[in-house]
Structures are given as structure tokens and as C-alpha cells.
Amino acid sequence: MEFSAFKKSVLLTSSAKTDVSHSGGYLSVTGSQKIRYNDILSIKQINYKAEVQQVWTLGPTYTPTASTVYKLRLGDPFKRYQGYAQQLISVAFTTPALITTIGANALAQRTYIATQLAAKINAIDSLFVTASVNGGTGALVLTDDAGYYPSPTAGGVTPRKGFTTVQVSTNADGTGFVTGDLTLTTAGQYSFGDGTDLASRVPAFYAYFGNNLIGGEINNPKTISGGDPVAGQKYNAFLISYLVLRPVPTVSDVMGYEQREFAVFVDNGKGTVTTNAAGYLAFEREMHRELFGMYKNDPKAVVEFFDNGIGGSSINVNATSLPSVNGVATGATQDINALNTGDNVFSNYLIGAATQIVPQMTNTGLNLEHDATASEGSIYDTGTFTNNPKEFVVGKHEFSTYFKASIALPTNVLSMLVGFRKKTAYNLAIANLDLLSLGWLSSNVAAQPISGTSILATVVSTSLTGVTWAAGETHTLQISVKLDGSVKYFVDGVDVTSSLANPIKTLVAGDTYIPFIYHINGNTAAATATVSEWVTVQSADFIN
């Protein structure tokens, strides 16, 4: 069943968990058509992204030579006029036979060359880049103009469509610029979900014949009443890809499946006006039930919202013997208890004796604390049994873990790490476990600095500048591993990999990993670290 007028998107400026309904085999979101759940191919989340200008740096260390051509090519190959792509434009400067006439030393000569190239580049109106010179190194700095994918204008030349491409052209004899002279200083990023951009963009495109403009909207997101996105607001989107049974064109009485996509744009409560902050989180949680529900039948998957209560029993006493009598959960240090949530069974390895043997469930999730006792805590994971399928082998699987929690008083959490560890025996000393994680290790401050930490023989860690977990805040941590073993780290949906110098960035093919949470209390006061979502799936791109 679907509405007679097919729509491709809807905009929710306010939201609640009741805006998502899954009933009778159909999924519907306020403002959308009902979609048969069995026809859904995928659900993905795309978070708001601010635009970042791309910056290239050319030649900070080379030594110029006489009578040499120094040339580069640059342009926007995605920019088109009447269907034709823009060709890269060459810009060059040839040094004189007596090199010292342009500078007494290499720095002065580089500065002169960069100044000549910058002047030529800035004089070309069709290039979406500003050239400048770094006086300290003599490097040529190329900064993209703002406005990737701006609003096309009727009758005008189609605007830029992407980042400026920059290439160096080495002379046939090997002189001039070489590849190593060019560095991408700042990777560009396209904006997504920016209210100002969404409100102003009116897509249009050219016909190939007659230079006539074909006008019309490509279904920009609008509210049910036809309202537009609001400038200053930030929107996340959920993209639903699904199949619809339709008549096959040109073939009588034959039906076939047509793939369609529907996007739900939602104010994420982090823009100029934050009134939808709580509503968005409630809506996102319900959409995550649908998104992660696509993986729930995978034997390797862990999909947990911690809203069914919890039961505990003993798996192993002091990590050396069989369960205690009747399998009753125990609280001695190094005991391993099974925690049954109704949807999953987790292993819980105790670090220090636990008076509160089984962690407590709250109205908003699982409280990781057993007791408010300094230097005590536990490891939560999917278990180390040989036949347990909830494991991932580097090079054979893509995999990700996603963690959402709120912490009342982070200063009372000495350590909290979330990520993947090798499927090996438990150990009281975290330094003896091979792992990759986000969180913090051995810190007691009011606003905990979130770091990337990995352990592979040695502990390496990098704190993210300005990224902290303060009292009462809710954050998400995500780690994704591609098939080639490369690792990506995300905090609140933002890829922070490039900001982390030290954690493991590539895993060894063939190694087996399981998801884990490591939590240690900081003192005798409660922190109330409550997990509302913990998901591990065989995918590396469900949220980006």
C-alpha cells in the first residue's frame, strides 16, 4: 500500500517516538507512505555535516633549479556547461637561467615562484580556488572557495559541483614539481542537512539541445504542510531503500520490482533553536529499532536497547572452573556472569568484588556500575566461547559497534572504553588485552576528554581536541572496520579518525575480534553511566 502521489522525502521540524510506526508488516513515518517491511532493502542514517573547505599546499621544501618549468593543473571536473565537463587548467612559471635573480636562497626562490603562480590562478575567474603564499616556507596554498553544490540559477552556467582537483605536472626529464611536493592539508567535506542550504537550493538542469533550461524541483524535503527547512537549523536524515511491485514498461501484463528511496529529514536539536533536542533523540531511538532490526537475524549481530530488564547467572568462577552451584550469579573478582536481557546474553567479567552482583536496569537503560567503589568495575562483551558466533574476523567481515550512553557524573568514572578486543581470555590488567576503543583510560575530571585508545603490545592513546563527556551529557561512540582492516572512529556521528594520531588504524588480517565495554569506577560516589543502545553488526556504513 502506498499513497497515490509518490513522494521522495519529508521534513520533520519537530519529532517524537510516535512519529515512527511498525505495525501489521508495514513501516511508516509521519508524512511518508506506508512501506511493506519485507520489501525494505536497507535503512541508513546520514548525520548533519558542516561544510569544510579543501586546502592544498604545494612545495614547502623543494629546491628550485634554473631554466625549469614549474607547472600545476587544477579545476572542477564535476562542473558542467551544457553537458560538458570543465577541463583542468594548466598554470606554469619558468625559472630564469640565473636562478638567483628571483631570490638569494631556496626559500626566497620558492616564494617568488609561488607568488607568480598565485597571481595567475587568482586571475582565472572560472577556478573556484583562492591562491596565497606562505611566507615562512614559500609554499603555494590553494584554498577552495565556499559553496560546494550551491543553488543553480536559471539561465546561468551550472555552478561548481565538488572539490577542486589539483595535480602537479612533472617535466619529461623529471625536473619541476613532483608528486611529493603536493599535500592535501585539509580534506574537504560536503555539507549535509544544513538548513540554510536546504532552504535555498532549487535544483535545475540543462537540456542537451537548444540550451533550454528544464526547471522543477527534485523533491527537496518539505514538511507535511509544505514548509521549507529553516536557516540555522541542522537536520539528520534516514534513507529507506525499498522495492515496489509495478507494471513492467512496454511489456503487457507483467509485473516487476522497482527500487525506490525515501528520505526523512529531522531537526536534530543542535541548530540555532534546540527545542527538538529531546524529541529527536526519542525519534532516533525508534528509527534505530528499524535500522538495526535489518541485522537482527544475523547470528553475529548484537542489537540491544536495554529496555527488557536483565537476569544474571554464573558462567565461570574466578575464570578457572565451572559455574557455581545452580548457576547463581556470583560477585568475587574475576568471576564471569551471564547477563540475559531477553534479546542477548552478555558475559560480564568482574574487576574487584561486586556487592551489587548484577548491574541495575534503569528507565533509560543499563547502569554499568555494580557498586560505587573506587577501582572496581567490569568488562562486558559477547563471550569467549569457541562456538559463539558473535565474532568478526579481519579480512573476512566488515564490522562496526555503536554505543550510546548518558553519564550523570563522568568524573566518577575512572575508565570507560568501548570498541573491539581480540577474542582471548580475560585479564584484570587492561594493558594485557589487545583492543581498539573510544573513551578514556584512568582519568578523573568533570568533563572527560574522549580519546582513541588501542593496545597491541603497548598502550597508545590520543585525546580529541575539545571533545569531552561532561555531566549529564549523552554521546555516541562508533568504531567501524572495513574489509581491508582499516579502522574508522566516530564520535556523535562525526568521523574523527584523522584527528587521532596513535590508535590502531589497520588491523591484521585473520585476527578475531569481539565487541566490549570496559568500565571502572573512579571513587565511592555514583556516576550513573547508563547505556541505552549497544549494537554490533556486520557492516561498516549503516551510519555516516
Brief summary:
It is built from three helices and 36 strands. The protein is mainly beta.
Please name the defining characteristics of this protein.
single chain, 544 residues, globular, Immunoglobulin-like, eight-stranded antiparallel beta sheet, ten-stranded antiparallel beta sheet, Jelly Rolls, mainly beta, 38% strand, 3 domains, disordered N terminus, 36 strands
Which helices and strands appear, and what pairs or packs with what?
Blueprint: E1 9-12, E2 20-23, E3 26-29, E4 35-36, E5 40-46, E6 55-58, E7 69-75, E8 80-81, E9 84-85, E10 89-94, H1 106-122, E11 129-134, E12 139-144, E13 165-169, E14 182-186, H2 195-200, E15 205-206, E16 213-214, E17 235-247, E18 255-267, H3 277-293, E19 302-304, E20 311-316, E21 336-340, E22 345-351, E23 361-362, E24 365-367, E25 377-381, E26 392-393, E27 399-407, E28 413-422, E29 435-440, E30 448-456, E31 458-469, E32 473-481, E33 487-491, E34 494-495, E35 512-521, E36 529-537
Parallel strand pairs: 1-18
Antiparallel strand pairs: 2-3, 3-4, 5-17, 6-12, 6-14, 7-10, 7-13, 8-9, 11-12, 15-16, 17-18, 19-36, 20-21, 21-22, 22-25, 23-24, 24-36, 25-35, 26-35, 27-32, 27-36, 28-29, 28-35, 29-30, 30-31, 32-33, 33-34
Describe this structure in words.
The chain is mostly beta strands. It has three domains: 9-50 and 194-270 and 277-293, no CATH class; 55-186, Immunoglobulin-like (Sandwich), CATH 2.60.40; 302-537, Jelly Rolls. The protein is built from three helices and 36 strands. The protein has helices spanning 106-122, 195-200, 277-293, and strands at residues 9-12, 20-23, 26-29, 35-36, 40-46, 55-58, 69-75, 80-81, 84-85, 89-94, 129-134, 139-144, 165-169, 182-186, 205-206, 213-214, 235-247, 255-267, 302-304, 311-316, 336-340, 345-351, 361-362, 365-367, 377-381, 392-393, 399-407, 413-422, 435-440, 448-456, 458-469, 473-481, 487-491, 494-495, 512-521, 529-537. Strands 20, 21, 22, 25, 26, 28, 29, 30, 31 and 35 form a ten-stranded antiparallel beta sheet that branches. Strands 19, 23, 24, 27, 32, 33, 34 and 36 form an eight-stranded antiparallel beta sheet that branches. Residues 1-5 and 203-218 have low confidence and may be disordered.
